Amino acid sequence: MTTGDDQLIREMARRNWLILCVMVLGSLLWKSLPVTVGVLGGGLVVIASFHALHRSLKRLLLTPGQKSGLAFQGGTLVRLLCLAGAIFVLIGPLKAPPLALAAGLSVVVANLLWTTVSRSLSW
């Protein structure tokens, strides 16, 4: 990847945390611990998944071949199982409301939308 690509990824990683902080602060207005846990938990899960996907794709592109493709597929399956487990724990034992969890899980989507709009306006 070029340095511009690396800079974009770093910028997006920082913005993920900024968006999550704003969303968690906004969730405090509900004065409900489960809502805040849902937003925070969803945000942490999706940011970790985004980071793991970035590392896996970078490894796949730097060492192309059938073996690395199979490793990528296996890693994707493990990542999805971990994501499902984390969501199960957040909804089940931690009693996070599904809407709060969905809001937290939308951190990366909001970041991608923000990045797309800001880059298209700068052309």
Structure description:
With 123 residues, the protein is mainly α. It contains five helices and no strands. The longest helix is centred in the middle third of the chain and has 30 residues, at 33-62. The chain is flat. The two termini are 22 Å apart.
| DSSP, total strands | 0
What is the string of helix and strand elements?
Answer: HHHHH
Task: Give the overall pLDDT as a whole number.
Answer: 93
The rounded Rg comes to 16 Å
Please outline the major beta sheet: none
Beta percentage is under 5%
User: pLDDT under 50 segments (min length 5)?
Assistant: none
Give the termini distance in whole angstroms: 22 Å
Would you tell me the structural class of the helices and strands?
mainly alpha
Q: Which shape, going by the Cα principal axes?
A: flat
Helix share bin: over 70%
Keywords:
123 residues, 0% strand, mainly alpha
Write the layout of secondary structure elements.
Blueprint: H1 3-27, H2 33-62, H3 66-91, H4 98-105, H5 107-121
Helix pairs in contact: 1-2, 1-5, 2-3, 2-4
Question: Quick summary of this structure?
Answer:
The chain has 123 residues and is mostly helical. The protein has helices at 3-27, 33-62, 66-91, 98-105, 107-121.
